[in-house]
Amino acid sequence: MKNKGGEKMFNGFIPRYDLEARIQHSKLDSWGNGMPSARMNRVEEPSTADFSSVMSGLVENLNTQIEAPDNLLKDAMMGSENVDVHDVMTAMAKAELTVSVATTITGKVIQAYDKIMQLQI
């Protein structure tokens, strides 16, 4: 609704600033271009099927990361020119970090499960 001066009017109130024009848009807010907001798509359409598929993917990745240093060490001991001690040490550090993250995630999931079980209905 507009008044006589052509300004937007909301229930008798005429704002002094055009707040809509002052909003800073980001990549996530695509509604200004005629597209739905990316934030809503993220919430409404999960990228993975369920929790079990995410956890099984993490376990497979964990197994791959843990086996990598052993495979590189075998190649280095066989005299492969493509692998040196630095590659083995880097793979071992990655495996150690992966195990640490997996342990932390497992602990957090168990804590969340315990909190859910303590809820009183």
Per-chain topology:
Layout: H1 19-22, H2 38-44, H3 51-77, H4 85-118
Helix pairs in contact: 3-4
In terms of per-residue confidence, which ranges show pLDDT below 50 for 5 or more consecutive residues?
none
Q: What number of domains?
A: 2
Number of strands: 0
Structural class: mainly alpha
Residue-averaged pLDDT: 76
Cα shape: elongated
User: What radius of gyration results from the CA coordinates?
Assistant: 27 Å
Please report the number of helical segments.
4
Percent helix among the residues?
55-70%
**Residues in β-strands, percent:** under 5%
Encode the helix/strand succession as letters: HHHH
**Termini gap:** 49 Å
Sketch the major β-sheet. none
Features:
single chain; 121 residues; mainly alpha
Structure in words:
By secondary structure, the chain is mainly alpha-helical. It has 2 domains: 1-45, no CATH class; 51-118. 60% of the residues lie in helices and 0% in strands. The chain contains 4 helices and no strands. The protein has helices spanning 19-22, 38-44, 51-77, 85-118. Helix 3 (51-77) packs antiparallel against helix 4 (85-118). The mean pLDDT is 76.
Summarize the structure.
It contains four helices and no strands.
